[in-house]
Each structure stands twice: as structure tokens, then as C-alpha cells.
Known about the structure:
By secondary structure, the chain is of the alpha+beta class. The chain has helices spanning 19-33, 48-63, 79-89, 112-117, 128-131, 146-153, 198-209, 218-227, 338-341, 345-362; strands at 6-10, 38-42, 70-77, 98-106, 159-160, 163-169, 187-191, 195-197, 234-239, 254-257, 262-264, 270-271, 280-283, 288-292, 327-332, 372-374, 381-383, 392-396, 398-403, 419-422, 425-428, 434-440, 447-451. The protein folds into 2 domains: 6-156, Probable inorganic polyphosphate/atp-NAD kinase, domain 1 (Rossmann fold), CATH 3.40.50.10330; 163-440, Tumour Suppressor Smad4 (Sandwich), CATH 2.60.200.
Amino acid sequence: MGKETVHLIVNPVAGHGKAPEVVASHVIPILDHFSIPYKQHITTAPRDAGHIGQSISKHHHAASSESGDKITVIIAGGDGTTHDFIEGVLDLTGKGQGQWEIVILPLGTANALYSSLFPPSAPSPTYNSLKSLSHPPPDDILPKLYSLFAYLDKSSSPLSLPITLTSLLPPEATPANQETDPCSSTIVVPSHVVLSTSLHASILQISETLRSAHPGPERFRLAAQQSASKFFDAKAKLFPTMTTIDGSGGGEVEQWDLRKGKFVKPFTTTTLHTEKDGGHILDGPFAYFLSTSTVDRLEPTFVISPPTSLHPDTSTDIHAQSKQRWIYLTVLRPLRDPAVSSSSPEERGEIWSKRAFEVLGQAYQQGSHINLTYSTNATATEVKGEGEVVVELFRCGSFEWIPLDNQQRQEGEGDGSRLVCADGALHLIPSGGRAKVDLRDPTEGGWSFAIWA
Ligand SMILES: Nc1ncnc2c1ncn2[C@@H]1O[C@H](COP(=O)(O)OP(=O)(O)OP(=O)(O)O)[C@@H](O)[C@H]1O
């Protein structure tokens, strides 16, 4: 039997535009060395990675009698290119099939998924396939090829990649709105890295409006300065996990207890007594609200969700894992800050803005923001002090985000709590509606995604 053909999907505009050169000079010679047949596809427009994926799938299944065969794609670009690919090949009807194994070449800007799998501080992995090369890649390129060498070695299985599906739901039909809104339909948005609202989504939105004046990364800093004082009026409902990887039942909503160093029953939420679904409710306003199931960081050193890991068997305290799949939520609610709640409404935004920069800045210190508590004198924060936790870190099976500010906004104000960001792409929740966020485990559908790492 011949070797499988791998497909290279190359985004020429990702990051600094280096992907085509790195692939030609370093990746293709390695594939040639191991006599691995390949086809190269260059993206020509946004979302093209998805169209390329659809075409690969069509040809593969037409040529193969075993339509369930896995297909390996090497994606050279950033998280956005992988997002485009997944969105394109995902078939939510349940009829489609596709077992995709992905090799990532991190040639984008942030490369959140890759840097979570291969953190810059971790010791360099060793690979037999690397040792067999007569000309090893140069030192600046080698750290970008670990996923490729993991694929070539095949010494373990690729890691399955859960996909988050966010339904943007219109308002529930009531006798009053039934006639006015008969055509509203639900949009479902997949994401594999991050689904966020509030500050994170707002920064991405505002930074786009600054792109022409500030083409460099400083537009993110400027956007953060404009957004950090904002409060986002919404309510969140967190639900337990329903399924486990081994099918052995569901779990509870849990919250990180920094003093115990483990997840425990939620202690800053209000339990929903009226519903039998075990849900927990979080009242706003919110400043930061970010969910992920796959990454602990959004950039190589910005570790926003330290307990999140794709590896099934990490057994240090913080990673203590059951076989459940979780959505991890990192939440900041400004009115929990005594310095904010004791100030006048006019002063609150400015006071909170400083706190937001202080807390999120700690994420760059190996994710130590999750150890902060409010001090009793209310002006400063402490590390693992006696006061309330600053960052609320939850894990759950699914959640709903219900925007409560539906007013029309002025230009430049952003879209408030109706804005959601899925792997960098922005979407708007219909006015009066909500976002329902679920995790689809790869084993559930006719399709699956796995990452070589
Ligand atoms: N040929 C193309 N021309 C213009 N845009 C493209 C092209 N091919 C892909 N794109 C778009 O480029 C965008 C940026 O790609 P990507 O997100 O992978 O890189 P990045 O933003 O530099 O990295 P990261 O997402 O890791 O920060 C994607 O949204 C994708 O849709």
C-alpha cells in the first residue's frame, strides 16, 4: 500500500507572510526526505482554507472506497487559518464524514493553539525523525516544526480537538414578538481556540477600526485602552457536563479554588434553585469573559487559562484531569472589586480600567492572575490573601450568554455585550437574543479533528 498523500494548506498573508518560504525551504525537503507524497494548496482569500478543505474531502472520498479514512493536512498559518479550515469542512448536519489529522506550522501572529501545545518555556522535545535528518533545520525554524516531527514519528496518537459550537439565538418567540420576527434563524459558529465576549471581543472590534492608521500591533494596545473601562451588561448561565470521553456520565459546574489548588463547587455564583438542570447563574456586569477548551494561552506568554490542556494525562495539581471535556471560563466582574463598588458610578470605569490592566498583566507572569485576591483595604490586590478571588475561573459543560444591553450604540462605541468573538472572528447576537455555547466532542459526530503534538 502506498503512503497517504498529505495536504499542505499555506496562508501567504498570515503573520509576517513567511509561510510559503518556510514551507518551500524547510518543510517540503523534510517530506521529500521521508518520501511522503504531498499536495500544496495556497489560500487566495479569507476563508479559502475552508474551501480547500472541502475540495480535498470531495476528492478523497471520491477516490477512496473507505470514506471514513483519515486525511492529514499540514496547516501553515495562524489560528485563523485553522479556524477557516475547520469551519469549511465541519458538517453540522451529522451526515458528513471526515477524520482530519492536523499538523500545525505556527506561522501566524499569535499561534495560540501551537504555543499551548509547545510552550516556549518547555524543554525541547526529542524526535527520532529529526535525528535521522542529515541537515537538521536551523535553530530559529526548528521550534516551528515540532508538530510535523510528532506526525513523522507517530510515537503516540494525535490529540483529539474538541470544537465549540456557539448558537446565536434570536429572542424566544412570545405572543408579542411572534408576528414581528417570523424569519429569524439561528447561526451556529464553530471555534477551536476561544469564544469570548466583553473586553476581549471589544478589543478585536476596535482594533479593526484602527488598522489603517495603525497597521502594527500597537492598535491592540490602543483598543485595550479604549475598552478597559467598559462594563458589559449581561447574564451568564453555566451548565454541567453531560458526557465524558469514556461515556461514564456527567459532572458538575466547578470553580477554581486558589487556596486549595483545585476545582471545587462554585462559590461566587448563585445556584439556580428553580431549574432542575444543575445550572449556575452569574449576574453582570462583566468586564472580561473568555472561554476555551483547548488552550491555556492566547499568545506564547499570555497564559489566560492555566488549567486548560489538550493533553489527557497531565496530572500535576492544576491539571488534575478527569476524562471529562470542559469549557473553561475566565471571568472578571468589576463590581466584585471593593474599590469599584464603593465608588460613585461616574468614577467606576476609570478605577476598574487600572485594575483590568494590572490583573491581565499578571497573565504574562505564567498565568499568576488566577492567584490574586482583593485585599481588605480595598485599594490593592494580594497574592493568595484572605479576601475574595479577583479572577473567577470556572469549568462547565456548556453555557449561555444573555446580553442585557440592547440599546442602539453610537459609532465607535462598539456593540456592547452582544458582540462575540470566535477565534478572532466577530459576530453579533440578535437583539433580545442570546448565545448558547456547547462543546462537541470529536467522537460524537461523523467528523473528527486531531492535532499532532
Ligand atoms: N490569500 C489571502 N489573502 C487575504 N487573506 C487571507 C488569505 N488567506 C487567508 N486569509 C485570511 O488571513 C487571516 C489571517 O490568518 P491567520 O489568522 O492564520 O494569521 P494571523 O492573524 O497572523 O495569526 P493568528 O490568528 O495566530 O494571530 C485569516 O482570517 C484568513 O481568513
